Amino acid sequence: MKKLHLACLFLGVLILAAACKRDSDFNYYYYEPADYALLSQYLNLPDRPENYQSELPNHLMALGLSVRPVDYDKATLGRVLFYDKKLSKDGTISCASCHKQELAFADNAKVSTGVFGRVGDRNSIALGSVLSFSAYYGTDLFGPSGIPFFWDNRANTASDQNMASMTNPKEMDMSHADIVNAVQAQPYYEPLFRMAYGSNQITEARVSEAIAEFVNGIGSFKSKFDVEAEKALGYNAYSYLEKNNFSGFSAAENRGKLIYLENCASCHSATQSRPEMMKANNGLDATTVDAGVGGITNATDDMAMFKVPLLRNIELTAPYMHDGRFNTLEEVVEHYSTGIQYHPNLSTELRAGGAQAKKMNFSTQDKSDLVAFLKTLTDQELLTDKRYANPFK
Amino acid sequence: MRQNLPLLLCVALCFTSACTHYYYAPNSLQTPFLQEKHDTRASIGFIGGDEFSGWEASACYSPVKYGALLVNHFQVKHVRPDDNPEREYGNGRLTELALGGYYPTKNNMNLSFFGGWGGGHVFNVYSGGAESDLRFERIFLQPGLAVQGNKARFSLASRFNRLNYISGNVNLATQGEEISTIQNIENANPFYFQEIGLSVGAGTEPVWVDFRLNINTKEQLRKFGFAKYTVGISFQFELDYLWRKKDRSHQMNSFNID
User: From CA A176, how far away is CA A163, in angstroms rounded?
Assistant: First the structure.
């Protein structure tokens, strides 16, 4: 009987001891600890991927636009590749050398300088809102292939674009084999590829896809214009741009908005969602100096035609035009006011009729207001968004 | 036919359950049919549930009259029935020790009560290769009732559990619902719930075959990836039969000598 009592006592003690709640210790990790230690030697990456999924504001959603899902692991890998100078022949140039985050992923040089000091041909295009001109919109006016890349529209996708830049002798001057070898030589890519692709096999196609995933994930939708458009959408969904002054805009900005809608929006988009046309001649020169799209297609009708860019973050992306000839927005506005040259392929929107170039003849006030409006397209958050920042230590 | 009823019920449950990763599954509730001091039982069996299966073993010994010691081990694997090389996977195991008592009545009934403590872990691999490994402790109180005839037997037991996940290593590459489930487990920890175990057996000394059904009665725990039920078949050996037989034979020999 004594044994039974002892057993019961032991059982009671056991249960009481176990019933005292002990803190649980849950350890959450994304990368294997050894992998993260390796990555941390070279990179300032968070212990789990950033959320690269941009959310479109409602005023763009209302237009039927949408974004495709972004693979965070591929975008993280792409971000490292984007900033990695080892992907260039002389180890001095990365994608980010010509697409600087603080400039909305544009370059402040007239034309960018590539490896071994080689000078490029055209001005670097801002990537600050690639979401807006890549193949996301499916049924938009450019069809399922989306809006092409480069000033001469020679690349259909962001992957084609980045591979062309990496292999361009005036930019990074790498062969496909060079790219794979350069990536394989860096230890930090092994875990990044494994996370992105489930294996550490490195191919140029994967490199290109990952960079595209990062670039395609860059969204810029937090400008003053977006904030005000979002507010205005609430009370007038269909004509919020034309009919209403934006309450948060200054008088100059609202006047500039109307000038923009009347004179610029038919090419560059009233809603800042996507350009209204894929290519145009905007009367920079009377004769063909740079063939532009025509240099790719060899079509007479395409000579001196160039991509029509979106104007988001335009304040930050000087110098302007495909050849960087204008240093300020005021110079750009002056061009459209009085400087348009007649060219056989001049856009009809810029013609006065027949073979005449249009003179918009803006007043000094108009020019100032228009520039004020263009500056509302700047998204300051993009410039310091850590998701898009240089990850290298 | 009556003996097949639990099996039919199990088959029905298998077809109505949803596929998921599990973070807990009930092992069998053992009612060892002890009769007297030095009774010793050992059992081994197969056990499984919806998309997982494994084995369990149990041993019980009565060192004193009406007192008993019980040890259980349970381990199962969760394998999805497809050929995807990146298929999801999981396994879990539990080992526990219990002390308790039993009281055989004159009408073939046997009342028992056990209280015990154990621990184990549950390991899952998700699509893409992410992993989670959760360690837990469980204490329980388990009253039971058994009826045993010459050829058949039946038992019913109820187990009151306190399940505490003491640690977890969780790869956050586990996206979406699964990671939410694990975080919910951490937040809701510890868990108190009741399980019911039914067994129907056939056999005779010293071997019995038991069909088992173990049900977690708390419906709210499904969202934490707790399996609703397990079913099993086990073979119990009355080990004491061997040495009692030896004793009997020794006694018989002694009588012969006399």
Answer: 9
Beta bridge partners of B182: none
Q: Distance (Å, rounded) from C-alpha B178 to C-alpha B53?
A: 21
Biggest CA–CA distance in chain A, Å, is: 117
Is A24 in Cβ contact with B86 (below 8 Å)?
no
Rg (chain A; Cα; Å): 27
Other CB atoms within a 10 A radius of the CB of residue A91 amount to 12
List of chain A residues whose C-beta atoms are within 8 Å of the C-beta of residue B168: 24-27
HEC letters along B223-250? HHCECCEEEEEEEEEECHHHHHHHHHHH
Sole residue written with tokens 């077809």: B15
CA distance B22 to B93: 12
Tell me the domains of chain A and their CATH numbers. Answer: 34-220+383-388 (1.10.760.10), 224-377 (1.10.760.10)
Q: What is the pLDDT of residues A204-220, one digit of tens each?
A: 999 999 998 998 888 88
Q: In Å, how far is A12's CA from the nearest CA of chain B?
A: 9
Where are chain B's structural domains?
2-257
Single-letter residue type at B242? L
Write the residue in B67, B115, B141 that is nearest to A4 by C-beta: B67
How much is the mean pLDDT over chain A? Answer: 88
Question: Which pLDDT does position A110 carry in this prediction?
Answer: 95
Task: Work out how many CB contacts closer than 8 A connect A with B.
Answer: 70
- Distance between CA B211 and CA B62 in Å, rounded? 24
Which candidate in B99, B185, B191 is best for mutational testing of the A interface (most A CBs within 10 A)? B99
* Residue of higher predicted confidence among A43 and A146: A43
Rounded alpha-carbon distances, angstroms, from residue B105 to B33, B147, B241, B256: 11, 10, 20, 34
- What is B2-257's CATH topology? Lipocalin (2.40.128)
Cβ distance A18 to B117 less than 8 Å, yes or no, reads: yes
Distance from CA of A264 to the nearest CA of B (A): 44
**Total Cβ atoms within 10 A of residue A13:** 10
Contact in structure between A281 and A343 (CB atoms under 8 Å): yes
Q: Does A247 touch chain B (CB under 8 A)?
A: no
Query: Looking at residues A110-135, what average pLDDT do you find?
Result: 81
Q: Which residues in chain B touch residue A28, judged by CB atoms under 8 angstroms apart?
A: 170, 172
Measured between alpha carbons, how far is B220 from B224 in angstroms, rounded to an integer?
8
CB contact under 8 A, B99 and A48: no
Q: What is the pLDDT, as a whole number, of residue A132?
A: 47
CA of B5 to nearest chain A CA: how many angstroms apart? Answer: 36
Tokens 């809006």 -> residue: A147
Establish if A25 touches chain B: CB-CB under 8 angstroms.
Answer: yes
* The pair of three-digit structure tokens given for residue A129, joined into one six-digit string: 């809102």
CB contact under 8 A, A27 and B172: no
How many Å lie between the alpha carbon of B24 and the closest alpha carbon of chain A?
Answer: 16
Q: What would the DSSP string read from start to end of A134-199?
A: STT-SSSTT-TT---BSTT--BSSHHHHHHHHHH-TTTT---HHHHHHHHHT-TTHHHHHHHHHSS
Query: Nearest CA of chain B to the CA of A189: how many Å?
Result: 17
Chain B interface mutation, best of A2, A24, A30, A70, highest count of B Cβ atoms under 10 Å: A24
